[in-house]
Amino acid sequence: MDHKREVTTVNFAAYREVLAVGSVRRLLIIAMFARIPHAAAGVLLTLHVVQSMELSYAAAGSVAAAITIGMAIGAPWRGRLVDIYGLRRALIPSVVAEAVVWGTAPFLNFQLLVVAAFIGGLFAVPIFSVVRQALSVMVPTEQRRTAYALDSMGGEITFMIGPAAGVMLATNNTVVGLIIIGVSASLAGIFLMWFNPPTRTGQKGSYVAVDRGGAEPFDAVEDAKAPNLSGKNFVLRFWGTSRHNLRWVNIAVLAILGTSLGAGLVLSGVNVGMVALMEHNNSTSDLGIVFLFWCGASILGGIVYGALKKSVNPLWLLMAMAVLVIPMGFATNAWTLGLLSILPGLLCAPVLTSSAEHIADLVTEKRRGEAMGMYGSSMTIGSAMGSPFAGAMIDDIGPWAGFAIVGLICAVLAVLGLIAMSIYRRRSACRVRPVTDEPRVVMGVEPSLEKGAPDGLATGRPGKATDVDGTRGPSSRDDSEELLGEPDPV
Predict the structure, then answer these.
(1) pLDDT value of position 468
(2) Between the CA of residue 183 and those of 17, 131, 190, 372, what are the distances in Å?
(3) Across residues 211-229, what is the average pLDDT?
(4) What is the DSSP letter of 105?
(5) Does residue 4 have a pLDDT over 50?
(6) Strand partners, 10
(7) Which end of the chain is more exposed for a tag (fewer CB within 10 A), N or C?
């Protein structure tokens, strides 16, 4: 019998299909501009501490660390509030805090500025998690990769514009610049509240916009009964409650969070390494050439990956990127460094896109905001670790060490993740439920709706019928299948 082997191909028409949806197009544009204030704030705050307050770069680093810690703690919490209360109610504290904190920060002394920076990070508008959470329900599952790729490319453009905008504001007056940052960040939150993109299936603007008046489908993990902790002491109650609230976190989810941490570590370490290498060669004026190659390659890689018809494991992408950054340490000038950055740069946006795509598939919609917040926090922590670690290696060994050691560490991290997932896959293979192609019945959707049939009754837009029970993306398969493919037969 002649069997046809499925081949991974690209479909650039997918971008036209995604961008043809007006609400998705508007969300991507709003997200790109909404990220600029936060991208500019880091540079502007550093220059404010060093120039206006006449303090050291170490002091500026302490303020940056306070923001990072605040964002790492706040992102999952803000995402959880979106899951519980909805987008508009959850964003009100952020909108107020952004204006108040950054409007008063320029007039504070150093100690209070550190506290304000922590509060600002804690209550920062969760643009990343909100946009990814919204895109996960605004497009069908098979177009999620393309939508995330577009968002990643928009992020690349934002982080090319943001630091330059921060420097431009600092040349005039850092006090006025920080106030502008606060007002702009607050306005970004107001725009998101006004646009109010859907964060759940069934809400207005979601791909499957149906009246789901019936009961939610049962999920063995999400609907597990809370433990009885009456009579326990505070520590045991806290531990039991935390374990129950985080019951959705398994090895597959941890692997994706490790991937995002590794990606943040590589990206921040490479940025420091680029600056150090160019300074070592007395070519800092040519640094723009290097970033043009680096960011341009990332955008190109995102375009290609978003057009793929099949997902790629983010752990493999991270390992390849980590290995490919090591040769960058042997560059001698801007042009060789730029050329050596092309191959790892091509994988930047795909790593971020693939990991976001998998985290959306691995958790229920009820937890997706919290999961996206954790995903953003792990990347923030990785970025915070990468810069000082690469800097220490550069100071002790040389500019090449910033690339080599960071790349080696992240490659090892990716290998460990692949090993852990392989073990998890084998153990879970024996309990994988059979998968059927029959659609599940949801109130408001005709039972006769077949897979691949038009779903105009549900959405008003052409496309394929998708899972509308809000459980696990395309199906309720085991998490390891979503990450690594079909398990070995038992």
Answers:
(1) 39
(2) 35, 20, 10, 25
(3) 52
(4) G
(5) no
(6) 308
(7) N
∠ CA 360-366-371, nearest 5°, is: 45
pTM here is: 0.72
Q: How many CB atoms lie within 10 A of CB 465?
A: 19
b/e sequence 298-322, b meaning 16+ C-beta within 10 Å:
bbebbbebbbbeebbbbbbbbbbbb
Decide if pLDDT at 183 tops 70. yes
pLDDT of residue 455: 38
In which region does residue 396 sit, left (phi positive, over 0), alpha (psi from -120 to 50) or beta (all else)?
Answer: alpha
Average pLDDT over the chain reads 77
- DSSP characters over 388-444: HHHHHHHHHT-HHHHHHHHHHHHHHHHHHHHHHHHHHHHHHHTTPPPP--PPPP-TT
Give the span between the Cα atoms of 98 and 138, in whole angstroms: 27
Measured between alpha carbons, how far is 79 from 441 in angstroms, rounded to an integer?
A: 29
Token pair of 197, please? 């993109």
Dist CA 184 CA 36 (whole Å): 9
Burial, 7: exposed, middle or buried (Cβ in 10 Å; 0-12, 13-18, 19+)? exposed
Contact 292, 407 (CB under 8 A): no
- Interval 309-366: pLDDT, tens: 888 889 999 999 999 999 998 888 889 999 999 999 999 989 988 888 888 888 877 7
Tokens, residue 238: 């806290």
Closest CA to 273 of 319, 343, 337, 335: 337
How far is residue 294's CA from residue 274's CA, in Å, rounded to a whole number?
A: 10
Residue 473's closest CA among 483, 462, 463, 459?
Answer: 483
Helix (H, G, I), strand (E, B), or coil: what is residue 10? Answer: strand
Closest residue by Cα to residue 106 from 152, 45, 57, 161: 45
d(CA 451, CA 445): 13
Give dist(CA 280, CA 317) in Å, integer: 30
Encode pLDDT of 367-393 as tens digits: 777 788 888 888 888 888 887 788 788
